[in-house]
Amino acid sequence: MSWLPDAASPGEPSLPALPAGETARSIELGERTVAYVLRRASRRTIGLTIDHRGLRVGAPRRASLREVESMLLQHGQWIGEKLDEWSTRRAPEVLQITDGLQLPVLGKPLRIRLALGANRGVWNLQATEPTLTLCLRAPTEAARVLEKALREKARELFAERLAHYAPLLGVTLPRLSLSSARTRWGSCSLRSGIHLNWRLIHFPPTVIDYVVAHELAHLREMNHSPEFWRILGAIVPDYRDLRAELREVSKGLARF
């Protein structure tokens, strides 16, 4: 179960080949021709997703093309508005990693320091000004060492929060994998476990907890039905506010 589009560069080219089960189609919506990707899967309803790749439609295997296109026509105005929004989005800033750079970790400022060393990160979160020192063999290693340090911190935190919420939801602690997905913050599979985007480490702990609890709740209800939101709301009563906060803080997330 995947959800919540991440910030992405507008105008990125489509993948040259579509995965099995996906087909490229187009439809006339008002005065515009809209291309979309149709993906058939084991699901009960037709769903629409719009991100930097354009319009993507998920449909039950038994749904007819007429039913799919009827849904698109019904939501034609919304589709057009969202496509226009994505076309005018500014590409996320690309960070230049220099000594003294400040970036958010757990929603608070973290100062990045550069030093000579064996390509490792040294954390000091107890100081008045928390720091992460990148000990580098060469300046060109900065981005790789920074990402590695943040990934390690993210895995440690995510594992702890999964262990906290799994018993509250009455589910077995799942396998954790980190992702670098450009269009989702988390996903859940009964077979492969929970996948969480390591860049969540930039966000406040309450937002991270929302994503963790959201994905764990899918182990009880693998959809976004009213029952799913009831399950999630029982342990995260303010999930609506946190979902809105996630969307807001993700807009300005820089990449390196």
From TrEMBL:
<dbReference type="InterPro" id="IPR053136">
    <property type="entry name" value="UTP_pyrophosphatase-like"/>
</dbReference>
<dbReference type="InterPro" id="IPR002725">
    <property type="entry name" value="YgjP-like_metallopeptidase"/>
</dbReference>
<dbReference type="Pfam" id="PF01863">
    <property type="entry name" value="YgjP-like"/>
</dbReference>
<protein>
    <submittedName>
        <fullName>M48 family peptidase</fullName>
    </submittedName>
</protein>
<feature type="domain" description="YgjP-like metallopeptidase">
    <location>
        <begin position="44"/>
        <end position="248"/>
    </location>
</feature>
